[in-house]
Design brief:
Elements: E1 2-5, E2 11-13, E3 23-26, H1 36-47, H2 54-68, E4 73-75, H3 86-102, E5 105-109, H4 128-136, H5 144-150, E6 155-158, E7 164-167, E8 173-178, E9 181-186, H6 197-204, H7 208-212, H8 222-229, H9 239-242, H10 260-274, H11 294-299, H12 301-305, E10 342-343, E11 353-357, E12 360-369, E13 378-387, E14 390-398, E15 404-406, E16 431-438, E17 460-467
Parallel strand pairs: 3-4, 3-5, 5-6
Antiparallel strand pairs: 1-2, 1-4, 6-7, 8-9, 10-13, 11-12, 12-13, 12-16, 13-14, 14-15, 16-17
Amino acid sequence: MRLLNTSSLEFKEFYENAIPKYAILSHRWESDEVSYKDYRSALRSHRNGENGTPGMEKIVQFCKLAARDEFTWAWIDTCCIDKRSSAELSEAINSMFQWYSNADLCYAYLSDVRSPNSCDWDAEELPPEVEEDLEKSAWFKRGWTLQELLAPCDVEFVSKDWEHIGWKGAAPVVTLHVYGRSRWTRRYDNRSVRNLSGILQDITGISASVLRDPSKINDFCVAEKMWWAGARETSRSEDLAYALLGIFNVNLPLLYGEGGERAFVRLQLEITRKSTDQSIYAWPSIYPVTPSDYDKYRAERDDRETQWMGLLARTPRQFLRNETISYGPDSCSCEQGDSMITRDSEADALDYTFSMTARGMQVECHAYALSEAFFPGSWVIPLSCHTRNGRCIIFLQETGNGMAVKGDGDYPYMVRVLSEVDPGTIDNAKVRVMKFCVRQTGFNDPDIHTDKRLEDIKVGNLSGSERAIPLRPA
C-alpha cells in the first residue's frame, strides 16, 4: 500500500503486515485531479510556492487535516495508485473496500456543501441551508462513494472549505486508563458530536443500523445491497460493477472495455458462487401490464420476446424499477415499509442449483406449471426470499428451441409475490422438480431465437417428486 506522509508529502510503500495507522479520503473526482504520474511535478510546484491545480490543493488540504489529527500517513486514490500499471490498479480496486475499512478515520470531502457556522457545532441539528446542500450533494450519487460510506467505522464529513459538518455515526471515542479505571473520552474534542446517520439514511435509503455498524452489512440480502447502488453512476460503465466488489466480498479481474452490462453479470455470477442468497434473482419486471392491456399485449408478444431478460439483471438500476417493492435487511429490527424482502433461514431455504454454462444459466429448482389457458410452457419459480405479503417469484417461458427466459412482463399483471398469483392459473398448486436452461441476454451468444445449435436444450422434468409451497403467507 502506497501512503503519503502528511508532513513531507512524500510517498512510502508498506506491505500488508507493516501498514501503519492512516487516514483516508473519500471524495468526488473532479477536473484537474493529480495522478501518480504527475504528482512529482505538482509537488515541486507546490514547494516553489506556485499556484497549484485544484487537485493538488485537495491533496494538500487533506494532509493538513490528517496531520492536525495526529496522522503521520494518509491515502487518497488520485495519486496513491499508479494507474499506468494494470496489475496495481486491479489490486487496488479489489482491495479498496478493505483499505477503507482498515483506515483509522475517513474524511468525506463534499466540495458542493457549505460550512456550518462554528457556533452551531454543538447543535444536534444541522443548519437548514447546510442540510439542504448535503441532501443535494453529488457525492451521494457516485458509484465509488457507496463503499467509502459503508466500509469505514468512523467517517467525518467536511465541507468545501474543509470545515467539520458531522459524523457518519457517533463521534469516535477512545478508552483512557486513569488510575486503573477506564474512562471514555471524545477523541476529537475540537469538533461536534453531531450524528448524521438519520440524515444519511434519508438521503441514501441505507438503514442507519449499518451506517452505525459496518459489520452489519452481511445482515442485508443481495437485493437490498443492489438497491443501495441502483441510482448511482460512474464515469466508466464497468466501474458500477467493480465498485461493488468489496460490498459483496468478491474479487474479479478487471476487463475495461467489456461494457457495464457484462461486468455486472460477471459480478453476479461471482456472488452466486459464494452465496445461496436467491434475492439476487428478485429484481422487478420492467414491463408492467394491466389486465385491460392483456389482448393488446398478447398481440405484441412476438415483438416483446426480443426484449426478454435472463435471470441476472443487466444493471443495479433494475433493482429500482418496481416501486411497490422495497427491500429490507435480514432482520425484523429495521422497518422500511410493508414490502421488505428478507431471506429465508437456511432451514427453510429451497435447495436450488444455479450454474452458468456456455448455453445459459442452468437451473434445477421447484416450479409451478401455469395452466395451458394462461400461456403454454410457462412456469413460476418460488424463491427463498419473501416480502410480508408472501414469497417472491420469477417467471420462465419456454421458447421454440426449448430455452426458458425470465419474462415477468409476459403476464397480464405486475406480479412479484406468489400470494398475488391467481391460484386458477396454477395446475394443482403444487411444484415439480424441474431443470431449465435460461439464456442470459447480453452474455450468451448468439441470440437464442436464431441459433439452431441450441435446439437440444429442453425443458424437462427431473423427477416426479412434488412439494407443496403455500400460495399465501402464513
